[in-house]
Amino acid sequence: MYSATFIFDTHQFDDDFHRLDAQIAEAARQTAGYLGEEAWEDPKTGRVCNVYYWSDEAGLRALIAHPLHQEAKRRYSEWLSGYQVIISQVLRTYGDGAFGHPARMATPLPQE
């Protein structure tokens, strides 16, 4: 399983940002191997973190190459004060199962 974590500080959002953000999220959901997503915001700093999950790297690469994603990369300074992207291969996932999570759809490795 792979995850892409997009962390950013906001600058100024406009209608174009909201439109493009929604379209990219939908494009992610349509890629092969898409498992789910979640988002977090730090109430102290306003920093936002979006995490997307895929069963394999192909879906992640498809989103990276998508024209809408490329447009957002070109225009990010209009809306963001800064960003960091973390691409990860998930080695293990486990929990008590009390709530649903996209990572539960992946096959976990045995706990050590």
Provide an overview of this structure:
This protein has 112 residues and is α+β, with helices and mostly antiparallel strands. It has one domain: Alpha-Beta Plaits. It is 30% helix and 30% strand. It contains three helices and four strands, in the order E-H-E-E-H-H-E. The protein has helices at residues 15-30, 57-65, 67-75, and strands spanning 2-10, 34-41, 48-54, 80-89. A four-stranded antiparallel β-sheet has the order 2-3-1-4. A hairpin with a 6-residue loop joins strand 2 and strand 3. The longest helix has 16 residues, at 15-30. The radius of gyration is 15 Å and the shape is globular.
Topology:
Layout: E1 2-10, H1 15-30, E2 34-41, E3 48-54, H2 57-65, H3 67-75, E4 80-89
Antiparallel strand pairs: 1-3, 1-4, 2-3
Q: What Rg is obtained from the alpha carbons, in whole angstroms? A: 15 Å
The CATH architecture category equals 2-Layer Sandwich
Overall pLDDT metric: 89
CATH topology: Alpha-Beta Plaits
User: How large a portion of the residues is in β-strands, by DSSP E?
Assistant: 25-35%
Kindly report how far apart the N and C termini lie. 19 Å
Give the overall shape: globular
Sheet with the most strands: spatial strand order: 2-3-1-4
Summarize the structure.
The protein has helices spanning 15-30, 57-65, 67-75; strands spanning 2-10, 34-41, 48-54, 80-89.
